[in-house]
Amino acid sequence: MEDQTAQKLRGGYYTPIDLAEFLASWIKEVKPERVLEPSCGDGAFLQALYNVGGFEGADVLAFELDGDEAEKAHRRARLLGLVNAEVRSADFMQWAVASMQDHGRPFDAVLGNPPFIRYQFLPAEFQARAEIIFDELDLRFTKHTNAWVPFILASMAMLRPGGRLAMVVPSEIIHVGHAQALRSYLGRECRRLVIVDPEELWFDGTLQGAVILMAEKRQEGTQIGEGLGIHSVRGRDFLKVEPHAIFDAPRPINGRTVAGKWTRALLDVEARLLLDELEQHPDVKLFDDVARVDVGIVTGANKFFLVDDDTVRRYGLERYAHPMFGRSDHCPGLIYDTEQHERNAGSGKPTNFLLFDETYSKMSAATRRYIALGEEEKLHTRYKCRIRTPWYKVPSVYSTEVGMLKRAHDTPRLILNDAGAYTTDTAYRIRTHGTPANRLVGSFLNPLTALSAELEGRHYGGGVLELVPSEIERLLLPLPAAVDLDLASLDEDVRSNPMEAVLERQADRILGALGVSKARQSATLASWRRLRDRRHRIPVDVA
Ligand SMILES: C[S@@+](CC[C@H](N)C(=O)[O-])C[C@H]1O[C@@H](n2cnc3c(N)ncnc32)[C@H](O)[C@@H]1O
Fold first, then answer.
1. Distance (Å) from CA 431 to ligand 1 centroid
2. Would you give the distance in Å from CA 260 to the centre of its chain?
């Protein structure tokens, strides 16, 4: 267990040899004389160079921070007869910064699998180096970055025009916000970019999904590149195909997709065209045009401020208690009404939000005791609590007619807040700009919006979809003028049936009302299902 944590902290999951060989064969096509491996572990990629053959005389420069692993890699290179391979036990970023600043000799190819370590866990001097790498390339730095981002940036920067970068990288490269500068940079620098996206996870022992990145740097002075393609693969059969055939397989897309999130490239060409067309439909709006998204109430101490009926009774807090919901099991349908609220309260859920909007001197002894309990737990010293006076009076308390949970398993849904309940920071508060709330809630649930949520949102290990306000604002929302929507029965449908079946019925209702054919409704639903299933994929044994 301890070993596993240490391994995780240094980002030490090694590449299976068959994948490493596949990448080595691909870079071999440009006959590299100089190869870089920025974080070689025990040398899986050195082994791959040997197994593939043809690299015997190549200059290979490898880095590995961990001394023992570097030693193993060094010994492996000697044993394999890679006479010009040098393994340095050092921080790759330190060397990369110096090399970028001196305009060191470029490499013909880069191979590797960079470490996955959040910026906040990097030692201070490494953090500084990561930032310099962004600066050297004139890219906007963010502290949300992760070690693999500056590793790829520096590797690409040190590649010669026409050179190739072949790496195993976290699958979040496709969508994660902090990698935006990297995606745009790669889009600018490369003739062609291909992601090989497995339907299963390749690495055991971590939820971190991985993909293969194959990138060929643009020749100087050539026009803009071809863009990005994503090639989905199932199992390991693709390893039997020539790597250049895989690199040439997907139809790339360019323009705003390559500059923005790459998720759109996960769709096949027909699905992209259909999406482009639907986007142009006059009754398909951007969420931002129709409604406004605000974060929920931030309490700073949810356990203290969100309580069950029992706690309310015990401390006589009735005067301060207001209905609230915040989790998907609080609102299994589309309507949150007093009936649902009472059901939640009856089952002991924390359905009360405590708003202490009264001066201390007027409070009962029991209420004061409750506040003292919070102070005993040092809640008043927590950042969000200590910046307000008094610490127990939560600010910005209002409810909206519509709410939306931040996270979703299948697809986000809007919730009609009939009970006027409050929502905390697990949910958003939504205000419509004039569209009646029940029309907004009912129309939101459809395969097109669900698909655009997959394209705009983010997900991490565990497969839950999460949307931040700016992503919700970009969602596509079909709002047909004439549609027969009965929210009560839709609510019942959502409570009782799988989301897929509900979306199919909604496709007919909502997209059908826009004049979208049955075949295209099904195609939209199928695209959503593919991306949802991809997000839900689970690790398989790679051995
Ligand atoms: C995901 S592993 C990959 C190892 C090897 N490339 C492979 O594919 O099997 C990442 C490696 O990066 C190393 N590492 C972490 N930080 C580093 C740094 N700043 N410079 C060089 N190597 C580093 C870790 O020790 C780990 O061995």
1. 47
2. 13
